[in-house]
Each structure stands twice: as C-alpha cells, then as structure tokens.
Amino acid sequence: MMFNRKPAAFPACLLFIGAMVFTPCALGDSLDHDSVKRLRDEGRILPMFEVMRRAERIQPGQLLEAELEREDGRYVYEIRILDPAGRVHELEFDAASGVLIESSYDD
After folding, report:
1. Are 77 and 68 a contacting pair, CB within 8 Å?
2. The CATH number, out of the four listed (1.10.10.970, 3.40.50.300, 3.10.450.40, 3.30.565.10), of the domain defined by the range 9-106
C-alpha cells in the first residue's frame, strides 16, 4: 500500500492507522482504547488522520508503522515511512499540536 499518489489507497491507510491507534498493543501498556478516545474527545491529542496528512506532505512513501506514545510527559505520534530509495524515515509529531518534533532516517 503506497502512502501517497494512490487516492484509493490513502483512505484504506487511514482506516488501518485508526485501528492501530485504538489498539492497546499498539499504544503500549499505559494507554488503552478508552484513554485514547478520551484524549481525542477532550482535544488533548489530534486525530491520527490529521497527523498522517502532515506526514504525507513531509515525506512521501510507503507507511510502515504508526503509533501513539507518551514521551517526556507529552503524547507523541511516531510515523515510519519507507521512501522510494529504500530509506526508512521516522517522523515524530507532538500529538496535541501536530508540530513535527523530530525527523530522521536510516540508510
């Protein structure tokens, strides 16, 4: 499944990511489905689809993994993308604001 340039695949990608966000094993031991939903409903974190759109604009490629974690007292979305050259990019976004915190890649 390509992360961009395939309009039909992008909605499917969002559904997949949405399922990951609300799956306790993808979130770690400290967050469960109800906690994530409550954080989103309270406006404390952005919906995953908004962050995925930002990630797509920054780094096109194939989505490998996406998860929500708590780091240093804040919630962070971590997105891993494989680019056409075979590099794996990791993008970290502040889950409350959607601001890109860090971007790195492995050769």
Report:
1. yes
2. 3.10.450.40
- Report pLDDT for 106: 87
SS3 breakdown of the chain: % helix, strand, coil, rounded to 5? 35, 30, 35
Dihedral pair phi/psi, residue 90, rounded to 5°: -115, 120
- What tens digit of pLDDT does each residue of 47-99 get? 988 998 999 999 999 999 989 999 989 999 999 999 999 999 999 999 999 99
Q: 3-class DSSP state for residue 82? A: strand
Q: Any idea what the Cα angle at residue 20 is, between residues 14 and 25, rounded to 5°? A: 175
Instruction: Evaluate if pTM is beyond 0.90.
Output: no
